[in-house]
Amino acid sequence: MRCWRRNARTLLPILLALPLLGLPARPLGASAAEGAPAHLASAATAQQPRARVTIGLLPVIPSATIFVPRDKGYFAEEGVEVDWEMAQATSEALTQAAAGHLDLAQATVGAAVLNAFSSGLDLRIVAGMHGMPPEGPGGDPIVVRKDLYDSGAVRDPAGLRGRKVAFNAPGLFVEYGVDAAMRTVGLTIDDVEIQTIPFPDIPAAFNNGIIDAAFLPEPFATQTMERGLTVQIIPDLLRGAQVTVLIAGRAFLQDRATAEAFMRGYLRGLRDLQRDGWGSPEHAAIIERYTRVPAATIQRILPQYADPDGRINWDSLMDQQRFYLARGYLRYTEPLDLLRWSDDGPRQAALQALAQ
Fold first, then answer.
1. For 157-189, how does the pLDDT look when each residue is reduced to its tens digit (9 = 90+)?
2. From residue 306, how far is each of 54, 271, 286, 312, 336 by CA, in Å?
């Protein structure tokens, strides 16, 4: 396992969320295979995988897009051994991917990623991960305190004007999401009082009346709703928005056979998640193994979504970039053409192979 230095001062997650109920205490450099079923580990060894792919990510619910195909043996069947290392800072994960110490990194295309692109890091977006569903209910909701909702004080974003709204960190999808919610009623994020609170602490903040609303991922959103602390508003917010993507370094993409083999296993997992649901007994058990979120909780949360073909909503990413530009988070003044940082070759090859 390749190890790389942790940034102890930077706790910005590589993802939108940190939906953990007790993060497994596995330091960088410890083998992720420790959490895998023994029969899969032995099968992978017996097949002598052609290549090893290491991904920088966090053991959170959206990472099911990696954990499900890994545990179901899809990567091994394609001749690839997939491992992961915990990435605590987006900028560090991207630097390590560009240097070839990581093959892939899971990220939201927030301020850190966009600034990395503009700085010249040799990186490419290769597939979509999780996002908001194109229609119907989905995860990552805006929730408000139930007493405010029941009294009629806050029934939609207009009622949030001047109130305290929480999320975990600026420059990420969560901040963009709050702004998008406010724009549905002709307001912006500047019309609320932002509170920066780690996601695991937000339920207590609601219970103590410290905050009025939050952009809150799962499983925390469902936990607060089931405890009678919050109510979801605007459930159709940001339908189809892209939240996380897979970003590859040049070294990974130069080995086209491995990149395409990885993508075949990855897409098989995405299609299983779409067909059977993230909360199916089998998938919930896999997600619990890595995140420590109980399977019973996973089966109750709002539906999670990932495009079954790994497509990327580029219009959504461009809109997010414009928001970060307006907020002054980026080290450039004109929007980047994000397609310049795309390599869709492995995904397209995988789609063709799976269609045969």
1. 999 999 999 999 999 999 999 999 999 999 999
2. 21, 9, 16, 10, 25
Pick the CATH number of 142-233 from 3.30.1830.10, 3.30.2350.10, 1.10.2020.10, 3.40.190.10: 3.40.190.10
CB 251 within 8 A of CB 103: yes
Residue 329 and residue 327: Cα distance in Å, rounded? 6
Same fold, 32-132+241-355 and 142-233: yes
Nearest to 87 by CA among 111, 71, 63: 63
Element (H, E) at 51: strand 51-57
Reported as a pLDDT band with limits 50, 70 and 90, residue 34 is: very low
Q: How far apart are CA 107 and CA 58, in angstroms?
A: 10
CA distance 305 to 191: 30
Residue 19 pLDDT exceeds 90: no
Can you tell me whether residue 145 is helix, strand or coil?
Answer: strand
Residue 83 is classified by DSSP as E
Rounded to whole angstroms, the Cα distance separating 67 from 73 reads 10
Confidence (pLDDT) at 93:
85
